[in-house]
Amino acid sequence: MVSFGCDGLVEHDLLFSIAWLLLWVMFIIVRVIPSRNVPTVRRSRKERFRALKQEGLCVFFMIFLATYGNVIVGALYLLNPPWASWSYLSLSSELRIAGLILSIASLPYAYWVGQTLANYYSFTVEIQKGHKLITTGPYKRVRHPLYAATLLFLIGQILVSDNWVFLAILLAMVPGFYVRIKREEQMMIEEFGDEYRDYIKQTGRLLPRLGSRKADSQ
Fold it and tell me: Which is nearest to 10 in space by CA: 123, 111, 88?
């Protein structure tokens, strides 16, 4: 935890900082390993950049924030300059430990999603050659488990870091998440028709569907 005394001195809790950094490294690893040989991932950065721009400004802004925003703020968090003291929330150790648990729990879930997607994974919204509708594993009850795992991880890391700027970044990313999810679902309906419409009725977007509640409202 970061505490501030009246003399303006800052005591930085190195343990939480190390945990925050290690969790980010682990999250990147579990995301990269399942998709390292996927054809769409092996595209050049220029090609991926062009494809993301075609998805629209909202989605492009989300990806930009997720990549560069978190890197820049993360560097400031780890360096802990005194002038950045205004960005801390002063959360209790219990809440920060809860964040650790959330982040750790998201790691095997994200890896499971990546393994299930296999060669169908893509940085952009597109249908792969020979694409089949996946309704097993993490996709059995949730239509977008990769986004769910990412959000779980980011929320956990906000608590671990005790820094509200990470929360601001996440909130700014939400519209991009929503737009991309809507486009993915429309694309899947166009590709799989009634098969995907039936799948929608049985699942939730980010959380498992509960009772008779309509999936689209989740």
Answer: 88
**CATH classification of the domain holding 62:** 1.20.120.1630
3-state secondary structure the chain: CCEECCCCCEECCHHHHHHHHHHHHHHHHHHHHHHCCCCCCCCCHHHHHHHHHHCCHHHHHHHHHHHHHHHHHHHHHHHCCHHHHHHECCCCHHHHHHHHHHHHHHHHHHHHHHHHHHHHCCCCCCCCCCCCCCCCHHHCCECCHHHHHHHHHHHHHHHHHCEHHHHHHHHHHHHHHHHHHHHHHHHHHHHHCHHHHHHHHHCECCCCCCCCCCHHHC
Tell me the residue type at 106. S
Q: Which tokens in the block code for residue 41?
A: 């991932």
- The β-bridge partners of 24 are none
Question: What is the mean pLDDT of the segment spanning 188-194?
Answer: 92
Range of the domain at 83: 3-217
**Tally of structural domains, the chain:** 1
Place of tokens 């959380």: 207
Predicted local distance difference test score (pLDDT) of residue 212: 43
Report how far residue 172's alpha carbon sits from residue 158's, in angstroms, rounded to the nearest whole number: 14
What value does the mean pLDDT take over residues 76-99?
89
